[in-house]
Amino acid sequence: MKVCVPSAKNGGLEDNVGQHFGMVPNYTVLDTETNEVMVVENTSQHNGGVGLPPELLSNAGVDIMLCGGLGTKAVNMFSEFGIEVFVGAQGTVETAISEWKEGNLASPNSENVCQGHDHDHDHQN
């Protein structure tokens, strides 16, 4: 199973969770069966590239996305690509994955998804 976390900078387990999901420079992907870590550059249209992050990460074989938060539209797009989303990730990528493994991250719902796209709310990164 491949678990993905948006990364604030260069990616990797020690990088911080990027809180602006679509705008992060990289996504860190951990294969939980092999413990292989892969960094996927965000080449989506949010960063001047092509396509959207769910498509990009689907092509990388991602099964699970862990993030601080995201909007309903993004949650639905991930669902269309068969990627399950969990919100509430913070700290390092490694911490976020540990929190997910321990069942401490939530599935998105009407109370914990971003309702707008103004990014004036209090993200940490």
Protein architecture, described:
This protein has 125 residues and is an alpha/beta fold. It is built from three helices and five strands, in the order E-E-E-H-E-H-E-H. Strand 4, helix 2 and strand 5 form a beta-alpha-beta unit. It starts with a strand and ends in a 24-residue tail after the last helix.
Q: How many alpha or pi helices?
A: 3
Please state the average pLDDT score: 89
User: How many individual β-strands?
Assistant: 5
**Order of helix and strand elements from N to C terminus:** EEEHEHEH
Question: How many whole angstroms does the radius of gyration measure?
Answer: 13 Å
Percentage of residues assigned to helices: 10-25%
Largest sheet: 5 strands, mixed
Largest sheet, spatial ordering of strands? 3-2-1-4-5
Structural class: alpha/beta
Our measurement of the CA-to-CA distance between the termini, rounded to an integer number of angstroms, reads: 27 Å
In the predicted model, the low-confidence regions spanning at least 5 consecutive residues are 117-125
Beta-strand residue fraction: 15-25%
- Rough shape? globular
Brief write-up:
It holds the Pfam family Nitro_FeMo-Co. The chain is α/β, with parallel strands linked by helices.
